[in-house]
């Protein structure tokens, strides 16, 4: 018995001692080359998966490590990753690490465009990173404006924060002004901002940039075909702040001036820290009041957002809850008139710097075409009122035996209400359209224009001769500016969407293979209502609303507009549609380790998209006297309303996408990569909403096919880093339809769709050079040759009548809106408490249409800034954009006439109309900001 007891005690004691002596601790510190501690550096121990992050003193500690050999990985955004083998033989080990600058973030782990996070240098994709410092060097104009800094990315932010365009590598044909993100996915923390797009409903409506964004990862083409929902052109992923080990954050106050004494005021904040027991939080957002870069009589933008996340860490992964509340009003600028096709200059007293041509603020009530007993409030000062409430859940866990899973899901409720103007074309008073567009049956005789605000008479004229081609005759001293009114619409849109999206990834690590499989799922229940009423507005740089009447002697006064200047209530546009969109895909990807230096990446994705919905048919309300039964109020005589008939659609789009890449790491700092991808782009909802007006939706849209090939090099030296990628991209089955206006019956329609093909070859590069410790030079850009290899345009000859229609062939022309050269060149200086930078953005010539009839000139924009660290916590920065007030032209809308489009400005048209005016979109003028930032 004694022997048994002694044996038991010896066993228990041995187990206890082994437990004590086998558990060890690793501690250490992480600093930069100047000896400054790095807070928030990530420490990972392999193969256990134990991790830690450094505190404000750059110190970390990992407890309870068994004796043995391990690989310790130290990474920090903006610095080169270190991997070191350590042997654990005693209880406590203390290590010290010095991280070198990773000038181009090639040693930074990226999560976008890949199923298994890896450092850029080992990736076979073209990914760029904007860190928080780069983000803060940009004026807070919006998402597209920030993405101008990504090499190879074309952006047009001339209209403001929304109504923007973003695309890469010539994959651009359907990225129209009203669906400018057609081929790319705008994401927040790995999931799309919105699942659907249609006219004037793009993801930029629901996205704002502020201090809650830690970095942006941008993937151009390539693996986007197999890693994103219906977005083969690229992914722009805005990643929020994560775990912060010590309570702290930033509060930033911004004020500045732009244009002609227009001001901006903004407050940003982001705070975070531990909550105890491995729980952490981040919360922040912004509020801003912005008068805008151009002149309007109301604030251009006001509102903001709140974002948060709560993270629970464990030894094998994390659990994160996150959310966003966006409540924001902004607007978008329309074009400016110009003359001289070869060297555009402003016309009609307008200028490229301050003219906006937006209607002034007023309060009107316009009958709702869906329910004629209801009215919609309309005030152009509201602009685009966007609301987004979203909640998400992100989960990652190593589940043992080299298996791991990641599950990310989000639910959102979106609402975008537009109360603004569309078009600002010149309409001569000698043009019958100026009167008949009111909806009146015969508005001929004495026309009186009064200022809608003051009621004073501005002009009285006799238009009796216009039907015989005779000019109008002013009666009295008053005249209207430029003898014209503006061809514009009081445009009301109401868009809603309830969305759910979900991504699940299951991974297995084998000896030479990392296999990832899973699914993406998204569902959107969306609705669209659009109604357009004509608005009588003066054609001048600061437009005024006009109350217009027909006052023939001896006859009753006919009101051509209401007292606010609104005419032809709901008679220009009517679209009332709803749709349910279901997107689902499954994928599998294998990263095969051929050798220590060579990895092959192969993936396929099967995707199915279902569009099910309906669109109301409509007709003018024809009751005598119009909606109010009064024959003398002509402005409500032609409102469009549903007939009760609906055109249904229910179509499925199924396709298989493929992407394969290879990465050869020829040394620790350099790698070659190549990739070929075959992707697909299913139609967006605008295909149904725009192209079928009072006719059956009897066929589904065409799936566009995208083929891309690329080969590149990435190299990371001590003072110089660069990436360079040669690419070839082809876009097939591009459906093109033009927006047209028939002046004979005042109707608006889209032309029959033509299917076309484009091809672009080019070279992208991104480089950074630090000749001495405090100076950095950055240079990135693209040289490309974009071609419309097969391209036809339907010419409706300005009328619904098809007897005079033709099809124009522009095959072989230069693909429009794609510059052959575009680059960013900057110099940054930082030493002690002082920092400064200057940046040159160059945009090359672009053809304004596929006929190559008009070219947008090249332009340069210079931005500059300087900062000073006032104290440990307080810093100040001055930022100036468009330093020299460049008058560059970003976009072209064709001839300056109601219903015109860019494709109408053919070489023949320009030759026949050398003195005609046309509509362009100038870049935004100089803006200066002062930022005060308090860090704690």
UniProtKB/TrEMBL annotation:
The keyword Phosphoprotein does not apply. It is found in: Cell outer membrane. The keyword Signal applies. It is a multi-pass membrane protein. Keywords: Cell outer membrane, Ion transport, Iron, Iron transport, Membrane, Receptor, Signal, TonB box, Transmembrane, Transmembrane beta strand, Transport. Residues 122-235 form the TonB-dependent receptor plug domain. Residues 337-883 form the TonB-dependent receptor-like beta-barrel domain. It comes from the Bacteria. Residues 1-17 form the signal peptide. Its main location: membrane. Belongs to the TonB-dependent receptor family. This is TonB-dependent receptor. The lineage of its organism: Bacteria, Pseudomonadati, Bacteroidota, Flavobacteriia, Flavobacteriales.
């Amino acid at each position: 018995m004694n022997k048994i007891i002694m044996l038991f005690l010896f066993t228990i004691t041995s187990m206890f001692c082994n437990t004590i002596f086998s558990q060890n601790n690793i501690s250490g510190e992480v600093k930069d080359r100047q000896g400054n501690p790095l807070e928030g550096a990530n420490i990972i121990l392999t193969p256990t998966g134990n991790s830690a992050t450094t505190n404000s003193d750059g110190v970390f500690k990992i407890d309870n490590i068994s004796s043995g050999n391990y690989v310790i990985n130290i990474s920090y955004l903006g610095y080169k990753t270190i991997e070191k083998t350590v042997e654990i033989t005693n209880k406590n080990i203390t290590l010290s690490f010095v991280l070198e600058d990773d000038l181009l973030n090639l040693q930074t782990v990226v999560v976008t465009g890949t199923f298994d996070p890896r450092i850029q240098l080992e990736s076979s994709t073209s990914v760029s990173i904007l860190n928080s410092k780069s983000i803060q060097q940009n004026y807070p104009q919006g998402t597209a404006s920030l993405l101008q800094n990504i090499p190879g990315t074309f952006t047009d932010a001339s209209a403001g924060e929304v109504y923007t365009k973003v695309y890469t590598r010539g994959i651009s044909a359907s990225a129209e002004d009203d669906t400018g993100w057609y081929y790319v996915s705008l994401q927040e923390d790995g999931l799309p901002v919105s699942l659907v797009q249609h006219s004037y409903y793009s993801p930029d409506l629901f996205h704002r940039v502020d201090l809650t964004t830690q970095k942006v990862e941008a993937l151009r083409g390539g693996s986007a075909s197999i890693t994103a929902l219906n977005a083969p052109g690229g992914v722009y992923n805005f990643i929020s702040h994560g775990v912060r080990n010590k309570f702290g954050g930033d509060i930033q106050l911004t004020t500045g001036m732009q244009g002609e004494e227009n001001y901006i005021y903004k407050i940003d904040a982001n705070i975070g820290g531990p909550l105890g027991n491995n729980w952490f939080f981040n919360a922040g957002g912004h509020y801003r009041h912005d008068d805008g870069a151009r002149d309007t009589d109301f604030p251009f933008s006001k509102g903001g957002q709140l974002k948060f996340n709560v993270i629970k860490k464990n030894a094998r992964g994390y659990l994160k809850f996150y959310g966003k509340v966006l409540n924001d009003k902004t607007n978008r600028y329309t074009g400016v008139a110009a003359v001289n096709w070869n060297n555009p200059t402003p016309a009609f007293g307008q200028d490229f710097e301050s003219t906006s041509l937006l209607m002034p603020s007023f309060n009107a009530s316009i009958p709702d075409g869906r329910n004629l007993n209801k009215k919609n409030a309309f005030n152009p000062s509201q602009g685009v009122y966007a609301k987004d409430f979203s909640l998400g859940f992100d989960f990652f866990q190593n589940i043992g035996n080299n298996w791991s899973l990641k599950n990310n899901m989000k639910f959102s409720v979106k609402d975008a209400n537009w109360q603004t103007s569309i078009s600002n074309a010149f309409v001569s008073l000698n043009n019958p359209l100026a009167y008949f567009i009111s909806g009146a049956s015969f508005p001929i005789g004495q026309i009186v224009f009064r200022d809608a605000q003051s009621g004073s008479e501005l002009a009285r004229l006799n238009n009796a001769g216009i039907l015989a081609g005779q000019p109008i005759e002013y009666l009295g001293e008053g005249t209207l500016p430029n003898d014209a009114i503006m061809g514009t619409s009081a445009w009301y849109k109401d868009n809603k969407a309830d969305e759910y999206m979900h991504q699940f990834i299951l991974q297995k690590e084998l000896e030479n293979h990392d296999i990832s499989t899973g699914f993406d799922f998204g569902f959107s229940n969306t609705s669209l209502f659009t109604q357009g009423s004509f608005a009588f507005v003066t054609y001048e740089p600061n437009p005024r609303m006009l109350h217009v009447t027909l006052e023939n002697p001896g006859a009753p006064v006919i009101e051509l507009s209401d007292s606010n200047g609104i005419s032809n209530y709901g008679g220009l546009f009517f679209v009332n549609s709803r749709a349910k969109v279901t997107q689902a895909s499954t994928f599998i990807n294998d990263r095969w380790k051929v050798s220590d230096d060579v990895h092959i990446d192969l993936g396929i994705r099967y995707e199915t998209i279902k569009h099910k919905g309906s669109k109301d048919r409509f007709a003018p309300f024809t009751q005598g006297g119009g909606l109010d039964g009064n024959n003398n109020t002509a402005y409500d005589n032609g409102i469009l309303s549903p007939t009760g008939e609906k055109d249904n659609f229910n179509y499925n789009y199924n396709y298989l996408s493929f992407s394969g890449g290879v990465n050869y790491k020829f040394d620790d700092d350099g790698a070659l990569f190549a990739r070929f991808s075959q992707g697909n782009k299913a139609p967006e909802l605008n295909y149904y909403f725009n192209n079928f007006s009072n006719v059956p939706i009897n066929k589904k849209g065409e799936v566009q096919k995208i083929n891309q090939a690329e080969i590149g090099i990435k190299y990371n030296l001590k003072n110089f880093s660069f990436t360079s990628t040669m690419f070839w991209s082809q876009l097939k089955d591009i459906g093109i339809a033009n927006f047209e206006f028939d002046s004979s019956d005042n109707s608006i329609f889209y032309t029959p769709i033509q299917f076309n093909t484009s091809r672009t070859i080019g070279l992208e590069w991104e480089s950074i050079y630090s000749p001495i410790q405090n100076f950095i030079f950055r240079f990135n850009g693209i040289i490309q040759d974009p071609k419309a290899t097969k391209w036809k345009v339907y010419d409706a000859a300005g009328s619904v009548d098809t007897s005079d229609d033709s099809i124009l062939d522009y095959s072989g022309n230069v693909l429009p809106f794609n510059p052959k050269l575009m680059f960013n060149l900057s110099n940054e200086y930082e030493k002690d408490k002082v920092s400064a930078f200057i940046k040159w953005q160059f945009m090359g010539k672009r053809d304004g249409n596929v006929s190559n009839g008009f070219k947008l000139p090249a332009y340069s924009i210079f931005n500059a800034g300087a900062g000073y660290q006032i104290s440990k916590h307080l810093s100040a920065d001055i930022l100036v954009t468009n330093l020299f007030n460049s008058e560059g032209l970003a976009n072209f809308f064709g001839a300056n006439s109601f219903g015109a489009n860019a494709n109408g400005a053919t070489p023949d048209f320009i030759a026949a109309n050398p003195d005609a005016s046309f509509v362009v979109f100038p870049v935004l003028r100089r803006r200066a900001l002062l930022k005060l930032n308090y860090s704690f």
